[in-house]
Amino acid sequence: MSIVVTGATGHLGRHVVEQLLEKVPADQITAVVRTPEKAADFAERGVRITVADYNFPETFDGLFTAGDKVLLISGNEVDRDRVAQHKVVLGAAKAADVALLAYTSAPGTLTAALADDHRATEEAVLASGLPYVLLRNGWYHENYTEQLAPVLEHGAVVHAAGEGRLTSAGRADYAAAAVAVLTGEGHENKTYELSGDEAWGFAEFAAEVARHSGKEIVYTPVSVEAYTGILTGAGLPEPVAAIFAGVDVSIEKGELAILTGDLSRLTGRPAITIAESIAAALKG
User: What is the DSSP letter of 26?
Assistant: First the structure.
């Protein structure tokens, strides 16, 4: 039996493996990666490294064994058929009759196009008949705190979210929730709506950046069309820019402002706040 983490060297996966190493022996962890060199540090610590790619189904043949607990981290290639990618992993897990399949999904309230792949994957997970956990991760602090350079350069936070609010959380907290599920008991066939503990808006975000940086930062709300143009001007392909602009529309509607408490209950601690995340990023 192994705890298997796909996408193990990605932004979220690396947090999951690091936190698993604090809970279970390294030889009970399997990290599934596309580039083994990126997992060299895990291998040195005794983690089993397996090379597989969502885009090549044959690489998952025989990867899982009965009794495994699998964390399927959703693919990050939003311009590809992510549902087909996820079904590759799901099919291999079904063939092995794994003990648990946990999937990192999106909030059930989200209607933006970004959620379509997640809803379709959830349907496939349920149809598989495997014991499952749906980890509906809310939005990530890092989606904003890792993009502070242009904010500081231009003195502005620009979004098409109006006065909308959201309850984001940090990758480390979402990873901790996944680890709790993978190492705990009684989570089978449950859905968790995961979010931070407090809602915030972009005006507050701008004020926090200003407070920690000592610079004058303002929030400038723009139209969806203008925001899409800004994103494409920054180099994003138009379909991808439209997806991210669509998330702002959902934020304005309140679809990412859920407050269930599921995240802090699973982790056993308060979630890292956006203010703490901003402070850490600026110290970085």
Answer: G
Q: Which domains does the chain have, with CATH numbers?
A: 3-137+169-196+259-269 (3.40.50.720)
Closest listed residue to residue 205, CA positions, set 188, 184, 221, 185: 221
User: 152-198 pLDDT, tens per residue?
Assistant: 999 999 999 999 999 999 999 999 999 999 999 999 999 999 999 99
Give me the DSSP letters along 31-63: EEES-GGGGHHHHHTT-EEEE-BTTBGGGGTT-
Phi, psi of 169 (to 5 degrees): -145, 170
- ∠ CA 40-45-46, nearest 5°, is 95
Give the mean model confidence (pLDDT) for residues 209-214: 97
CA distance 78 to 98: 27
Helix 224-233 and helix 238-253: axis angle, to 10°?
140
Whole-angstrom Cα Rg for the chain = 19
